[in-house]
Task: inverse folding
């Protein structure tokens, strides 16, 4: 929930998600097409990245698209596997986000998205600041709610006391004129975001059963398994219903704070993989 959001531009990551993984080799966007690197992509991965084949000190190249005024650079200071990882540093608020976008045809569109990533977060955003670290989005329709299709976004991040949160939003509502209903819905967890250590984060976004799930180090975060309704919404435009995308078309991985009071965040991401089956952390 972010009832006091500060948005310098469009108030959400339009058409995007965060991603995940382990055991990849360079960049891979379809079976048998890998850049040089060590190890191999999980068998079920359709897109994966371990940053070993990416130049140090530069933003990752295709198929990734950097977004925001924060930095996302290949780094050798800290890595989970191999020598390289991606270091992200944000500045305050939406404009200061550090994200990588992906809409690769090897994976999208899809109705069932799994991901995993190794994350090392120095310190989570302070109490009350809403953040997102993984997100998927696509078009949907809701008769009687909005006249025509609109974009729906499913996210995992957090907000209160550095605890995790599932979030649903409809970014078209921030356009002028609005291109979707107002929502911004939440489901809070009792689990605190791990800090100062490598964590394997996995997620599932399922448009076929209208369900989203999250795992940390192989253990399900049970109170963040969400269907079509969470604990509440900032705005009543969808009558608190989470209308899932008909299919997912894009995603982002990284970090964004929606308020300007959170300061700077630093994190590393390594061993990213995406597919339509769960890949696990082993």
Result:
């Amino acid at each position: 929930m972010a009832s006091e959001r500060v948005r310098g531009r469009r108030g959400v990551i339009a058409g995007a998600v965060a991603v995940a993984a382990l055991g990849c080799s360079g960049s891979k966007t379809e079976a048998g097409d890998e850049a040089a690197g060590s190890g191999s992509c999980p068998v079920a991965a359709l897109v994966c990245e371990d940053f070993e084949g990416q130049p140090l000190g530069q933003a990752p190249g295709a198929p990734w698209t950097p977004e925001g005024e924060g930095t996302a650079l290949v780094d050798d200071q800290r890595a989970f596997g191999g020598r390289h990882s991606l270091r992200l540093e944000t500045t305050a608020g939406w404009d200061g986000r550090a994200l990588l976008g992906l809409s690769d045809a090897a994976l999208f569109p899809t109705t069932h998205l799994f991901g995993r990533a190794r994350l090392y977060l120095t310190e989570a955003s302070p109490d009350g600041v809403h953040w997102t670290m993984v997100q998927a989005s696509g078009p949907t329709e809701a008769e009687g709610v909005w006249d025509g299709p609109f974009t729906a976004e499913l996210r995992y991040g957090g907000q209160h006391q550095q605890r995790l949160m599932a979030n649903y939003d409809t970014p078209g509502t921030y356009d002028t004129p609005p291109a979707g209903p107002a929502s911004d819905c939440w489901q809070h967890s009792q689990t605190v975001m791990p800090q100062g250590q490598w964590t394997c984060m996995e997620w599932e976004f399922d448009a076929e059963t209208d369900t989203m799930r999250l795992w940390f180090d192989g253990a399900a975060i049970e109170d963040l398994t969400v269907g079509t309704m969470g604990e509440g919404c900032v705005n009543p435009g969808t009558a608190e219903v989470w209308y899932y995308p008909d299919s997912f078309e894009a995603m982002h991985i990284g970090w964004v704070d929606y308020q300007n009071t959170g300061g700077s965040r630093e994190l590393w991401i390594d061993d990213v993989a995406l597919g339509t089956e769960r890949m696990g952390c082993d």
In short: The longest strand covers residues 112-121. The chain has one domain: 27-275. Residues 27-275 form a domain with the Jelly Rolls fold (CATH 2.60.120.200).
